[in-house]
Amino acid sequence: MTELTGRDLTLAYDGRVVVDGVDVDLPAGRFTVIVGPNACGKSTLLRGLVRLLAPTRGAVLLDGTDISRVPTREVARRIGLLPQSPAVPAGLTVEALVRRGRFPHQGLLRGWTRADQEAVDRALDRAGIAALRTREVDELSGGQRQRAWIALTLAQETPLLLLDEPTTYLDIRHQFDVLDLVAGLVHEGRTAVAVLHDLNQACRYADQLVVLKAGRVVAAGPPARVLTADLVTDVFDLPCDLIPDPVTGTPLVVPHDRRPHRRPAVEAAGTVTG
């Protein structure tokens, strides 16, 4: 299993620090979910962890080795990344896109194999888009396109998956389908890291939460231990109560009612006259 670690990790764009001195441990064989308000550095942290953005200070360790010293093809064989809103070349079919997930396994002496095709077929099936394999990606709905990218990541068959907002564009049923799929991969032995916006989904699925605020980690650990009403209020500026999820027992965030002119419940429901 593959383990990823950030030590004193500082990431910046054009001299502006976005992630500031972060220590983060992403344990092997676990599902870690990164949460935090908009523009707090979640996606930037993910890009730094997968070596798409070089740190200005600190290091990312892949199984104890500085990732900057690991050959690019080896990184691609060990870490799969689903980026946020990736661009697709015009005219590319779903299957052609997903086949790109096998590129790290190709080489001068190794062409396309039956094992590669089987990996693509499995990925299309697990993402629920096998019937769309001949469709062009730019003709798909946002949700279908997102699942095509998820299938590409699955076809890569890496021990570690990094997913930046994988439920974007998906309706609620397909959101849970994707999260169930990721949780199943973790159960099979893979390591997964995802950026999510929905705190309740994060608490239900994560083995570990990493909570960011203004580019710093303010809490990390199992959801039941680290998530409190005070933390949600402080990080998200959202007064709330926490109750146990009636299905899983994990923390469930219930925001306080902030409507200024709420009608009484009886009036809102209407009256019944005989």
Protein model, in words:
InterPro entries: AAA+_ATPase (IPR003593), ABC_transporter-like_ATP-bd (IPR003439), ABC_transporter-like_CS (IPR017871), P-loop_NTPase (IPR027417), Siderophore_ABC-ATPase (IPR051535). Residues 4-239 form the ABC transporter domain. Keywords: ATP-binding, Cell membrane, Ion transport, Iron, Iron transport, Membrane, Nucleotide-binding, Transport. There is one protein chain. This protein is an alpha/beta fold. The chain has one domain (4-232): 3-Layer(aba) Sandwich (Rossmann fold). 32% of the residues lie in helices and 26% in strands. The chain is built from 10 helices and 12 strands. The protein has helices at residues 42-49, 72-78, 94-99, 114-126, 142-155, 172-187, 199-205, 223-226, 229-236, 265-269; strands at residues 4-13, 16-26, 31-35, 57-62, 65-66, 79-82, 160-164, 191-195, 208-213, 216-221, 240-244, 251-255. The strands form 3 sheets. A 6-stranded mixed β-sheet has the order 6-7-8-3-9-10, sandwiched between helices. A 4-stranded antiparallel β-sheet has the order 2-1-4-5, covered by helices on one side. Strand 11 and strand 12 form a beta hairpin. Helix 4 packs antiparallel against helix 5 (142-155). The longest helix has 16 residues, at 172-187. The chain is globular, with a radius of gyration of 21 Å. The termini are far apart. The mean pLDDT is 91.
